[in-house]
Structures are given as structure tokens and as C-alpha cells.
């Protein structure tokens, strides 16, 4: 085999190897970035759920206070619905 052929073979093997390694490296980094996005979404959803639960509890307390001051006919159905909804 001539010197030029050996150099071409070695060069093409190196370029191919570096290309495969580069693609693998890029895929690994992309996967990490995508997973961090999933983690951010889960944290955002958990915070939103926590905030909604706090709002629900606050509204239930307010409704109880208002019902003590001025009971309404709908208070029995609203209280029953709130009690059924808070069981989960």
C-alpha cells in the first residue's frame, strides 16, 4: 500500500471516528437539556398545584366566615360540595 493510500485511510478513519463521537456527544447534551426541561415543567406544575390548593383553602375559610355572618340557602349545598371536593 502506498503512503498516500495509508494517509487517506487513516484520515478517513479519524474523520469518521470524530464524527461519530461528536454526534454521540451532541445527543447526550441534547438529552440532558430536554430532561432539565421536563424537571422544570414538573416543578412548575407542582407549584401551580400547591398554589391552587392554598387558594382553595383560603376561599373555603372565607366562605365559612361569610356563612357565619350571613347564612344563605345555598350554604348547605356549597358546604357539602366543598367537603366532598376536599376529600381527595
From TrEMBL:
UniProt feature, compositional bias: Basic and acidic residues: 41-67
Q: Which family does it belong to?
A: Belongs to the PET117 family.
Q: Does the keyword Metal-binding apply?
A: no
Q: Which domain of life is it from?
A: Eukaryota
**Which organism does this record belong to?**
Pseudozyma flocculosa
- Which Gene Ontology BP terms does the record give? mitochondrial respiratory chain complex IV assembly
Alphabetical UniProt keywords: Mitochondrion, Transit peptide
One GO CC term, this protein: mitochondrion
Question: What protein does this entry describe?
Answer: Cytochrome c oxidase assembly protein
Composition bias of kind Low complexity appears in: 72-88
**UniProt-annotated stretches for the region Disordered:** 41-88
Kindly list the places in or outside the cell where this protein is found, as annotated in its UniProt entry.
Answer: Mitochondrion
